[in-house]
Every structure is written in C-alpha cells, then in structure tokens.
Amino acid sequence: MQVFGLIGNPVGHSVSPPMHEAAYEACGMDARYVTFEPDPGSIERVVDGADALGITGLNVTIPFKEDVAAAVDTDPLAERIGAVNTVAFVDGPTGYNTDAAGVVRAFGHHGVSLSGRAVVVGAGGAGRAAAFALADEGMDVHIANRTVERAEALAAAVPNASSGGLDGLPAALSDADVLVNATSVGMESDETPVPKRALHAGLAVLDAVYAPLETRLLSDAAAVGATTIDGAWMLLFQGVEAFERWTGRDAPIDAMNGALRDAL
Ligand code: NAP
Question: Which residue among 68, 184, 210 is best mutated to probe the pocket of ligand 1, counting the most ligand atoms within 8 A of its Cβ?
C-alpha cells in the first residue's frame, strides 16, 4: 500500500483526504492519504521520518510551508516562492509549490488566456505563488497588499512586476485582464478586498478563498459580467498537480473535483 499525507496545524477540517482518496479509488490504487499535526520545530525529523517510512508524498500547509522549503531540496519555482506545499520522496525528498500550478490550471480550465496584465491582491504565501506563476506565463503583474512594504519586496523578486497598496486597486485594475484575490479577506465573511467599482466585464477573477465558495468578490465580479473562478478550482488543481508529481500519471480530475466539492 502507498501512503500519502498532509502535515499542518490544524488539519482536522482539511478536504485533501477525500479529494486524494477519490483519485486513488478512480485509478484503482492501493493507497491511503492521512493527516499529521507535527510539533513546531520538528520538521526536519518529520521529513526524514517520512522518507525512512517509505511515504510516497506529503502535502504541506500552514504553518509549515516555509519550514519545509528550508528543510528539503526544492525545485526552482518553489525556491523562488520560498514555500513548499508538496514533497515527493524519490531518491530523497524534493519540495514543490503546486499552488502556482493551481492558479495557472484553474484559469486554463476556464479557457482564460494568461496574457496581458494581472493584478494579485495579497503578498503572503498564496500571493507569492500567484505572482510568480502569472509572471512565468508572461503576464505583467501588479501586486497590491495591505502592507505595502510586503508588496514592494515581492515585486522586486518577480519579473515585470509593480506594486502598491489596496487604495490603488481601481487604477491598477482599469486595464487588467486577470485578478487573483490571494488575501484571506472574504474567508467566512461577507467582505471583499476589491471595491466593486474597480471590477469590469473584461476581467477573469480567481478568488483563492474557498469558504464560502461564492465570496462577495465573486458575486460583485459576476454582477459586472466578469468571468469568475472560485477557490475550489485552485485547491483542486494544486492537488491534481501534486498527484501527478507523486504518481507520474494523469489525475482523474472529475473524480477529485466531485469529492472536493462534496467535502466543502
Ligand atoms: P498569508 O500568508 O497569511 O497571507 C495573508 C494575506 O492576506 C496577506 O497578504 C495579508 O496582508 C492579507 N490580509 C489578511 N487580512 C487582511 C485584511 N483584513 N485586509 C487586507 N489584507 C489582509 O496567507 P496565505 O497562505 O497566502 O492564504 C491567503 C488566502 O488564500 C487564505 O484565505 C487561504 O485559505 C487561501 N488559499 C487558498 C488556496 C487554494 O488552493 N484555494 C491555496 C493557498 C491559500 P498583510 O501582508 O498586510 O498582512
């Protein structure tokens, strides 16, 4: 039997176990996906232990993404993002950031062409992944964040990026093609980080927030005729990308999407 898992704290309400176990079932794999809440400060032992036990792959969530990036060899994209959310154990552990692919593949699944100008709101882990991913697709990226210094620091590392505060969003969005909310604003609340007047029909809007699925930002965006993509699509495709890196096979996307949406 193959064993996969998730490390984080808390992980009790994670929807990754049903999403990945649906994939194993659809592919006829003898595999399980289990969750762990390790002690802070134990990450190197956790990674070595997982390797020694023959675990095939681990996902990593808050608060360990940066600790794991420091503890394992990382691929170049995860290195630039500075955070690992997926570890594959093949001749030792290698760290990846599949949140970046989650952003790109969520747009691609909805037929959105990633060219032109993108605005990323947020400069934490999800914002870093989105900014590097969209810049690597060739987009000009503007990063807006509540703490402007964090946006400036990120923009200095991302090719063709600019930065500003949240008050500059209407100007930044006026000629934008793509918007990603990578803040936690809207999570379990009716708030939005983007004023409705800044939205327009030419935008494709991805909200990383997935609880609720229809956030205030997405309902405002739909009301002006923008394309809307909920956070479950990003969650799905980061998991799809992890499955494909661990197994070397195409993920059963429909099975994973069904299980994920049932669990949310
Ligand atoms: P993080 O590293 O803690 O970053 C949080 C971001 O939100 C920062 O940019 C922060 O701004 C901003 N923020 C927090 N409260 C705010 C407020 N009241 N007003 C304006 N900005 C505020 O978190 P993260 O890991 O990037 O996650 C961000 C969100 O993305 C979470 O909701 C998370 O669940 C979601 N997410 C979704 C997926 C997915 O697959 N769908 C994947 C990863 C994350 P400051 O810098 O000013 O503090």
Answer: 184
φ/ψ of residue 243, rounded to 5: -55, -45
- pTM of the model as a whole: 0.97
Q: Taking the chain (264 residues) in consecutive chunks of 10 residues, what is each chunk's mean pLDDT?
A: 97 96 98 96 96 97 95 97 96 96 98 98 96 98 98 96 98 98 96 98 98 97 98 98 97 98 96
Q: Which of 183, 185, 192, 194 to mutate to test ligand 1, by most ligand atoms within 8 A of the CB atom? A: 183
Rounded to 5 degrees, what angle do the CA atoms 178, 179, 180 make?
A: 125
Contacts of 171 (CB under 8 A, 6+ apart): none
Ligand 1 pocket: which residues have CB below 6 Å? 99, 102, 122-127, 145-147, 150, 182-185, 187, 193, 208-210, 231, 234-235, 238
Please say whether the beta carbons of 6 and 242 come within 8 A: no
Q: Where are the alpha helices (DSSP H) in 28-164?
A: 43-53, 65-71, 76-81, 98-109, 125-136, 148-157
**Residue 169 and residue 180 in contact, taking contact as beta carbons nearer than 8 Å:** no
How confident is the model at residue 116, as a pLDDT? 97
* Residues labelled catalytic: 65
The predicted structure's pLDDT at residue 9: 95
* pLDDT score recorded for residue 203: 98
Residue with tokens 């006829």: 28
Q: What are phi and psi of 74, to 5 degrees?
A: -120, 155
What is residue 7's DSSP assignment?
E
What is the predicted pLDDT for the residue at 186? Answer: 96
